[in-house]
Specification:
alpha+beta, 2 domains, two-stranded antiparallel sheet, 4 strands, 24% strand, elongated
């Protein structure tokens, strides 16, 4: 049994006449850091068993997409409901990133660093097996 969290063999992704990914063999061991970069539209999406797969993946996106009029707790509550997690999970991740004291503060009042920590908290919800940092590239 392998300790790989991601494993592909001869992975191909095509869009009409354009091959975005061509014959990728990839093995990423659990607990390692690995970068997979590519331009927007290069096929870094997830298909099939989407909900099951997303429970094991935390994502940290480049551009924050929070509801600014909600608190950090309320924003994480949305993620908690989608992932079907226990309510205590929100308190756990807020403590991990040092935002427990501002759990009832509206995100629009957060500094950039606080928003980044909220993004990390969201990515850690449910103790995912894989955390991805998603960055858009212009090529």
């Amino acid at each position: 049994m392998s300790n790989y969290i991601v494993e592909t063999k001869d992975l191909i992704k095509s869009f009409k006449n354009f091959k975005a990914v061509n014959g990728i063999d990839l093995k990423v061991k659990e607990g390692t850091i690995y970068g997979f970069l590519g331009p927007n539209g290069a096929g870094k999406n997830i298909k099939g068993k989407r909900e099951e797969i997303l429970r094991d993946i935390g994502a940290l996106v480049e551009t924050f997409s929070y509801y600014e009029h909600l608190t950090s707790y309320e924003n994480l509550e949305i993620t908690r409901v989608v992932l079907k997690l226990n309510k205590t999970e929100i308190d756990r991740v807020l403590a991990l990133v040092g935002l427990s004291e501002v759990r009832n503060k509206k995100v629009k009042e957060f500094s950039l660093g606080m928003k980044q920590r909220l993004g990390i908290a969201q990515a850690l919800m449910g103790n995912p097996k894989l955390i991805m940092k998603l960055v858009a590239m212009i090529m």
